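Help! Submission page says 'invalid entity' but I think these are all valid:
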Amino acid sequence: MSTVLAAPAGTAPAARRGGSPARPGRMVLGILGVALVAWLVINIFLSIAWFPGWYLNNRLLMAVVGILAGLGGAALLFYFANVFAESLPQRLSQGVIPYIFLLPAFGFISLMLLYPTVQTINYSFAGDRSTEYVGFDNYAAIFSSGEFWLAITNNLLWLAIVPAVTVAFGVVVALFADRLPATGEKVAKSLIFLPMAISFVGAATIWRLVYNLDEDTGLLNAIITGLGGTAQDWLRFDTARLNSLLMMVILVWLQVGFAMVLLSGAIKAVPEETLEAARLDGANERQLFFRVIIPQIRGTILTVFITVLILVLKVFDIIYVLTNGQARTNVIAVLFFQELFTAQRAGQASAIVVILLLLVLPVLLYQVRSFREETR
Amino acid sequence: MTAVATPPRAVMGTRRSVTPEGQRRSWVAPLVMVVLCLLWTVPTLGLLVTSLRSREDAATTGWWTAILNPFGAGWTAENYAGALSGQGMAQGFLNSVVVAVPATILPIMLAAFAAYAFTFMEFPGRDLLFVAIVAVMVVPIQVAFQPMLDLLGPNGIGISGQFVAVWLLHTGFGMPLCLYTLRNYMATLPLSVVESAKIDGASHYQTFWRLVAPMSMPAIAAFATLQFLWVWNDLLIAKLFLSPGNATIIVQLQQLLGTQGQGEELLQAGAFISILLPMAVFFALQRFFVRGLTAGSVKG
């Protein structure tokens, strides 16, 4: 690749910007360079996948080559694209460069997010193997399935509880940590923030030790029998959806740290004068909190709420790992997985994702709207 | 946690001292915080303790008995030895590294160029395209599974199961957040710097490399921390797009969780191993991570 890099520097030393006439030589160089680099990068990545033997089957070597090819390739690609753009007449060049800078990023987004979205909507009207169209049959099938409505109900339950509880805990932690001595605040916040680094699967492993059926080894059952109660198989205990609630605890446990960090920053940024003025007017701590602090951190509360909301809409790992949707705990993302891979019904699985997309849509529109208001 | 503890207008201390009810409330905050901290750490402590006990001990008595009687507990590291050798979790750990590091680095440069264009260039459709980024961030990745399995699988280009497939997917899925985070940060850079570079005759390409990219390092670090944790902890993409030999440690854990009883003691040790690296990254780069959370807290 070094020869490729050396070529343009050697052939066109006098290439300074500013000249407006088109320069066909540089243009050809730019086009050839882009084509060659793209070809090389694609083939390097394909070779890592197809011929691991070339890399001595060494994973670390593949990772290093992947990083170098990706970074070097991107840098060279932009370099040659820039050479091409600058060879154009000035005005055309200024118009083209922004799109050249955007193209690779948007290429990835189109390939990995936009194309699949369209294709999934398309598949949702096709049969189990996506070979023929079946109209609205898939939607009819899922809408008449009890399991689908169970999943929707559970998702709504998660939506109703988890974001609100997470925000509430986040506010409480942020508020009380603010009143601790500096070291205490730092330690407390770090401890509560720490679960953010833990995977859902890791968290499920951790909490299985708490919910364990065995009264000798399960923490919750040990506490309950210690208090004179009887041990339960908590993850199968579906009265009042208790098992779902217990799994929500795990997600709240993971996310409160995130909520606390954002809310703590917002609370500390509340101007002291506003608190002072309220106190002079005779407000007590409760009024101070609800009438002065809360209105001023509303924006942050919404951000946290929406973020957790999006997470909850797609909640998968915890339920998949702990109950696999049994004992009335199923949710949309798990149901989708079961339909696509266990039942091998691609059409219905796609229809479920389309429903998920529709559920996300209001949040998406809200995001876009608030972004537009912000930048206006 | 410097970024958290010292926000712009921190008035800690003063606020406490002027609270009229300060005296009466002073014990409430510490008490609540101690209880919360216990609730937040005890489960993880349980995992650590259990992972250090023998199979028989863990199966017959609760982990807390080992804490209450630390000298008669019979601590052992054999679960860790077992997890790393027998279940191939050393391989899984390595696979996780091979997946996560390139998947963290690859989106950055592509997104940075696009973010530069959004911040420092005027062109038709700019606002519309950026709104598209904001919208796409929320799209659930589940939409991608079937189409991408077709495209990358044996009927497509045949790279599914290999690390390359997962790198590509995470690059695509991480791109909107990366672009969004970087653009928001670049928008806070002084425009005059870029303007003066332009007057000096520097092209956009040169301005990007010499000025904007180095100045954007904090935002790049913020995104990188977030993306690393996200990719490392991911179950779905790794499970669907990696062959068994390339499985990450998270996928291995999920499989162990599925086989009830079998290898139970290895599970705890393996889970703790899987937590170690993200935890270290998290502590080392916490400052950037917090900034990343604050900057772009919404991801699909």
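Support: the input was valid. A stray whitespace character was the problem, and the output above is from the cleaned input. The mean pLDDT of chain A is 89.
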